[in-house]
Design brief:
By secondary structure, this protein is mainly beta. The chain has 3 helices and 12 strands; from the N terminus they run E-E-H-E-E-E-H-E-H-E-E-E-E-E-E. The model has no long low-confidence stretch (mean pLDDT about 90). The two termini are about 30 Å apart.
């Protein structure tokens, strides 16, 4: 399981005080009002900082971090992931999982055959969809293919995060 969970990405600077516009990657953008300590995952290492203030504009959060006092400081961090410790994450309901925990899980069918690995989770209006990468042989070797599995009771039979295995029933037409 991941130790840190992403709640947003710095999109751009805002104003003259070092505020940044953040694209939330959490189900609840209000998380920025609830958490205090965050980690900025940079190429040069992690920066632990504090959220000093938050307001919202359209689909973005405008955040003031303690580590930025002017736009020049903040500009260097455009594209940086904003992470929280797992202990600070929102509790999950029965049958809910953090996307970070699903990515990388092995997917097997209800007969025990290995289908592939979860590469991504698409969040649609009706239900989530697991993007599963699976290799298959062709004349040039192993080729990667993606299949889309809807997260519905008829298809997803069991999710075992501890073992990193998802058991599925392949509905007719899904592999065509």
């Amino acid at each position: 399981m991941e130790q840190f969970l992403r709640i947003g990405v710095i999109a751009s600077t805002h104003g003259i005080k070092g505020e940044v516009k953040v694209y939330p990657t959490t189900d609840s953008p209000q998380r920025f009002c609830e958490v205090k300590d965050v980690i900025l995952k940079t190429k040069k290492g992690d920066i632990e900082t504090e959220i000093k203030g938050v307001r919202f504009f359209k689909n973005l959060a405008i955040v003031q971090f303690a580590c930025f006092t002017n736009p020049e400081d903040a500009k260097k961090y455009i594209g940086t992931d904003i992470m929280i410790h797992r202990k600070d994450a929102q509790p999950l309901e029965e049958g809910e999982y953090y996307i970070a925990d699903l990515i990388g899980c092995t997917v097997i069918d209800d007969q025990g055959n290995n289908i592939g690995t979860v590469k991504d989770v698409l969040q649609t209006g009706a239900n989530d969809v697991y993007v599963v990468g699976c290799g298959y042989p062709d004349e040039k070797g192993l080729k990667e293919k993606e299949i889309l599995l809807p997260v519905i009771k008829d298809c997803i039979k069991n999710v075992d995060i501890e073992q990193s295995v998802i058991t599925v029933h392949i509905l007719p037409g899904l592999l065509d």
